[in-house]
Amino acid sequence: MEDEGRRVQERRRRREYLLNISERLFAEQGFFKTTMSQIAKESEFALATIYRFFRSKEELYFTLIEEKMEMLINNVHEAVARVTPSIEKIKALIRAQMTFFENHPNFFKIFMAEKIDLEEGGRHTLRERIARKYNSYLNSISEIIRKGIRRGELKRMDPRETSYTLAGMLNTFTLIWLSHPGKGSLAARANTLVELFLRGTQQ
Question: Which domains does the chain have, with CATH numbers?
Answer without folding.
Answer: 1-54 (1.10.10.60), 56-201 (1.10.357.10)
